[in-house]
Amino acid sequence: MGKALLLIDLQQDFCPGGALAVPGGDQVIDVANQAMACALRAGIPVVASLDWHPGNHGSFAVNAGQDVGGTGILDGLPQVWWPAHCVQGSEGAQLHPRLDQQGIIKRIYKGQQEQIDSYSAFFDNGHRRQTELDDWLHARNVDHLTVMGLATDYCVKFTVLDALSLGYGVEVISTGCRAVNLSPADGRQAMSEMQARGAALITLDEFCQRTAP
Ligand SMILES: [Zn+2]
User: Fold this and answer.
1) Where are the domains of the chain?
2) Please, are residues 8 and 155 in contact by the beta-carbon 8 Å criterion?
3) Whole-angstrom Cα distance, residue 62 to residue 82?
4) Residue 172's beta-bridge partner residues?
5) What is the CATH number of domain 2-54+91-211?
6) What spacing in Å lies between the alpha carbon of 86 and ligand 1's midpoint?
7) CA atoms lying within 13 Å on the CB side of residue 144
8) Residues 114-159: tens digit of each pLDDT
9) E strand spans, 85-193
Protein backbone atom coordinates (compact mmCIF):
# COMPACT_ATOMS: atom_id res chain seq x y z
CA MET A 1 0.00 0.00 0.00
CA GLY A 2 1.40 3.38 -1.03
CA LYS A 3 0.85 6.61 0.79
CA ALA A 4 1.06 10.29 -0.11
CA LEU A 5 0.78 13.52 1.84
CA LEU A 6 -1.48 16.06 0.15
CA LEU A 7 -1.16 19.75 1.12
CA ILE A 8 -4.18 21.78 0.08
CA ASP A 9 -3.84 25.39 -1.12
CA LEU A 10 -1.19 26.65 1.33
CA GLN A 11 -1.06 29.91 -0.61
CA GLN A 12 -0.50 33.47 0.53
CA ASP A 13 -3.99 34.64 -0.41
CA PHE A 14 -5.53 32.13 2.03
CA CYS A 15 -3.35 33.35 4.91
CA PRO A 16 -3.74 36.53 7.00
CA GLY A 17 -2.89 39.52 4.81
CA GLY A 18 -4.08 37.70 1.70
CA ALA A 19 -7.09 38.38 -0.50
CA LEU A 20 -9.20 35.52 0.90
CA ALA A 21 -7.59 35.13 4.30
CA VAL A 22 -8.68 32.10 6.29
CA PRO A 23 -8.57 32.91 10.02
CA GLY A 24 -5.37 31.41 11.43
CA GLY A 25 -4.45 30.06 8.00
CA ASP A 26 -0.75 30.73 8.52
CA GLN A 27 -0.78 28.62 11.69
CA VAL A 28 -0.90 25.46 9.61
CA ILE A 29 2.35 26.21 7.76
CA ASP A 30 4.45 24.89 10.63
CA VAL A 31 2.21 21.82 10.83
CA ALA A 32 2.76 21.26 7.11
CA ASN A 33 6.53 21.58 7.46
CA GLN A 34 6.59 19.05 10.30
CA ALA A 35 4.27 16.65 8.47
CA MET A 36 6.46 16.95 5.39
CA ALA A 37 9.58 16.15 7.39
CA CYS A 38 7.92 13.00 8.77
CA ALA A 39 6.65 12.02 5.32
CA LEU A 40 10.02 12.46 3.67
CA ARG A 41 11.76 10.41 6.38
CA ALA A 42 9.32 7.62 5.59
CA GLY A 43 9.70 7.95 1.83
CA ILE A 44 6.15 9.26 1.42
CA PRO A 45 5.75 11.64 -1.54
CA VAL A 46 4.36 15.13 -0.86
CA VAL A 47 1.92 16.75 -3.30
CA ALA A 48 0.64 20.33 -3.11
CA SER A 49 -2.50 21.69 -4.74
CA LEU A 50 -2.74 25.33 -5.79
CA ASP A 51 -5.82 27.37 -6.55
CA TRP A 52 -4.80 28.99 -9.84
CA HIS A 53 -7.38 31.27 -11.42
CA PRO A 54 -7.35 33.44 -14.52
CA GLY A 55 -8.07 37.09 -13.64
CA ASN A 56 -11.49 36.87 -15.31
CA HIS A 57 -12.59 33.86 -13.24
CA GLY A 58 -16.36 33.61 -12.85
CA SER A 59 -16.20 32.90 -9.11
CA PHE A 60 -14.87 36.38 -8.37
CA ALA A 61 -17.58 38.70 -7.04
CA VAL A 62 -16.11 41.59 -9.04
CA ASN A 63 -16.47 39.63 -12.29
CA ALA A 64 -19.99 38.46 -11.45
CA GLY A 65 -21.10 41.96 -10.39
CA GLN A 66 -22.13 40.54 -7.01
CA ASP A 67 -21.26 41.11 -3.36
CA VAL A 68 -18.44 39.12 -1.79
CA GLY A 69 -19.78 36.27 0.34
CA GLY A 70 -23.12 36.13 -1.45
CA THR A 71 -24.26 33.14 -3.44
CA GLY A 72 -25.61 32.65 -6.94
CA ILE A 73 -25.29 30.41 -9.97
CA LEU A 74 -22.21 30.05 -12.18
CA ASP A 75 -22.78 28.11 -15.40
CA GLY A 76 -25.55 26.04 -13.79
CA LEU A 77 -23.85 25.36 -10.46
CA PRO A 78 -24.33 26.98 -7.03
CA GLN A 79 -21.49 29.41 -6.42
CA VAL A 80 -20.18 31.48 -3.51
CA TRP A 81 -18.89 34.84 -4.78
CA TRP A 82 -15.31 35.22 -3.60
CA PRO A 83 -12.95 38.16 -3.54
CA ALA A 84 -10.48 37.93 -6.41
CA HIS A 85 -7.79 35.53 -5.18
CA CYS A 86 -4.97 33.26 -6.34
CA VAL A 87 -4.71 34.90 -9.74
CA GLN A 88 -2.21 32.96 -11.84
CA GLY A 89 1.31 34.28 -11.38
CA SER A 90 0.38 36.83 -8.70
CA GLU A 91 2.16 37.03 -5.36
CA GLY A 92 -1.00 35.94 -3.56
CA ALA A 93 -1.09 32.73 -5.58
CA GLN A 94 2.38 31.70 -4.42
CA LEU A 95 2.81 29.09 -1.73
CA HIS A 96 3.38 30.60 1.72
CA PRO A 97 6.97 31.83 2.05
CA ARG A 98 7.53 29.83 5.27
CA LEU A 99 6.44 26.57 3.63
CA ASP A 100 9.38 24.27 3.00
CA GLN A 101 8.81 23.82 -0.72
CA GLN A 102 11.81 21.59 -1.35
CA GLY A 103 9.84 18.61 -0.10
CA ILE A 104 7.03 19.03 -2.64
CA ILE A 105 7.55 16.79 -5.63
CA LYS A 106 4.30 17.50 -7.46
CA ARG A 107 2.07 20.56 -7.80
CA ILE A 108 -1.56 20.22 -8.88
CA TYR A 109 -3.11 23.39 -10.32
CA LYS A 110 -6.89 23.85 -10.23
CA GLY A 111 -9.51 26.48 -10.98
CA GLN A 112 -8.06 27.45 -14.33
CA GLN A 113 -11.32 27.24 -16.27
CA GLU A 114 -13.06 30.59 -16.18
CA GLN A 115 -16.66 29.38 -15.89
CA ILE A 116 -16.36 26.77 -13.15
CA ASP A 117 -14.86 26.72 -9.66
CA SER A 118 -12.69 23.87 -8.41
CA TYR A 119 -12.57 23.25 -4.70
CA SER A 120 -11.35 19.66 -4.95
CA ALA A 121 -7.82 18.85 -6.09
CA PHE A 122 -9.32 15.97 -8.13
CA PHE A 123 -12.28 17.47 -10.05
CA ASP A 124 -13.95 20.78 -10.80
CA ASN A 125 -17.15 21.48 -8.84
CA GLY A 126 -19.32 19.94 -11.57
CA HIS A 127 -17.11 16.83 -11.92
CA ARG A 128 -16.84 17.80 -15.58
CA ARG A 129 -13.07 17.51 -15.78
CA GLN A 130 -10.35 15.86 -13.74
CA THR A 131 -6.98 17.23 -12.75
CA GLU A 132 -3.97 14.98 -13.21
CA LEU A 133 -3.90 14.08 -9.50
CA ASP A 134 -5.70 10.71 -9.64
CA ASP A 135 -3.58 9.50 -12.58
CA TRP A 136 -0.40 10.71 -10.89
CA LEU A 137 -1.24 8.84 -7.67
CA HIS A 138 -2.24 5.67 -9.52
CA ALA A 139 1.01 5.67 -11.44
CA ARG A 140 2.80 5.56 -8.07
CA ASN A 141 0.51 2.93 -6.56
CA VAL A 142 -0.75 5.37 -3.95
CA ASP A 143 -4.00 4.23 -2.37
CA HIS A 144 -3.88 6.09 0.94
CA LEU A 145 -3.83 9.86 1.39
CA THR A 146 -3.08 12.08 4.35
CA VAL A 147 -4.67 15.48 3.73
CA MET A 148 -4.31 18.87 5.44
CA GLY A 149 -4.51 22.53 4.50
CA LEU A 150 -6.90 25.34 3.60
CA ALA A 151 -9.73 25.63 3.89
CA THR A 152 -11.46 22.91 5.91
CA ASP A 153 -14.96 23.75 4.69
CA TYR A 154 -14.14 24.05 0.97
CA CYS A 155 -11.02 22.72 -0.69
CA VAL A 156 -10.02 20.25 2.04
CA LYS A 157 -13.55 18.88 2.38
CA PHE A 158 -14.22 18.44 -1.32
CA THR A 159 -10.79 16.93 -1.95
CA VAL A 160 -11.34 14.42 0.85
CA LEU A 161 -14.86 13.49 -0.29
CA ASP A 162 -13.65 13.00 -3.86
CA ALA A 163 -10.70 10.91 -2.66
CA LEU A 164 -13.06 8.66 -0.68
CA SER A 165 -15.34 8.29 -3.72
CA LEU A 166 -12.33 7.34 -5.82
CA GLY A 167 -11.51 4.56 -3.34
CA TYR A 168 -8.58 6.05 -1.46
CA GLY A 169 -8.15 5.51 2.23
CA VAL A 170 -8.06 9.02 3.69
CA GLU A 171 -6.90 10.54 6.94
CA VAL A 172 -7.08 14.25 7.73
CA ILE A 173 -4.59 16.00 10.01
CA SER A 174 -7.25 18.03 11.77
CA THR A 175 -4.74 20.31 13.48
CA GLY A 176 -3.38 21.21 10.04
CA CYS A 177 -6.66 22.66 8.73
CA ARG A 178 -8.46 25.97 9.20
CA ALA A 179 -11.93 26.96 8.01
CA VAL A 180 -13.37 30.00 6.21
CA ASN A 181 -16.50 29.70 8.41
CA LEU A 182 -18.89 31.90 6.43
CA SER A 183 -21.23 30.36 9.01
CA PRO A 184 -19.48 29.74 12.34
CA ALA A 185 -20.07 25.97 12.39
CA ASP A 186 -18.95 25.29 8.79
CA GLY A 187 -15.52 23.98 9.76
CA ARG A 188 -16.84 21.66 12.45
CA GLN A 189 -19.56 20.37 10.15
CA ALA A 190 -17.03 19.75 7.38
CA MET A 191 -14.87 17.67 9.76
CA SER A 192 -17.95 15.67 10.84
CA GLU A 193 -18.97 15.10 7.23
CA MET A 194 -15.53 13.88 6.21
CA GLN A 195 -15.45 11.55 9.20
CA ALA A 196 -18.96 10.25 8.52
CA ARG A 197 -17.96 9.43 4.95
CA GLY A 198 -14.98 7.39 6.15
CA ALA A 199 -12.03 9.71 6.68
CA ALA A 200 -10.01 9.29 9.87
CA LEU A 201 -9.24 12.48 11.79
CA ILE A 202 -5.73 12.41 13.24
CA THR A 203 -3.21 14.76 14.82
CA LEU A 204 0.22 15.65 13.51
CA ASP A 205 1.82 13.53 16.24
CA GLU A 206 -0.24 10.51 15.23
CA PHE A 207 0.80 10.96 11.61
CA CYS A 208 4.47 11.16 12.53
CA GLN A 209 4.28 8.20 14.92
CA ARG A 210 2.58 6.00 12.32
CA THR A 211 5.03 6.90 9.60
CA ALA A 212 8.16 6.58 11.73
CA PRO A 213 10.52 4.26 9.89
ZN1 LIG B 1 -10.48 29.86 -5.77
Assistant:
1) 2-54+91-211
2) yes
3) 8
4) 147, 201
5) 3.40.50.850
6) 7
7) 9
8) 999 999 999 999 999 999 999 999 999 999 999 999 999 999 999 9
9) 104-110, 142-150, 169-178
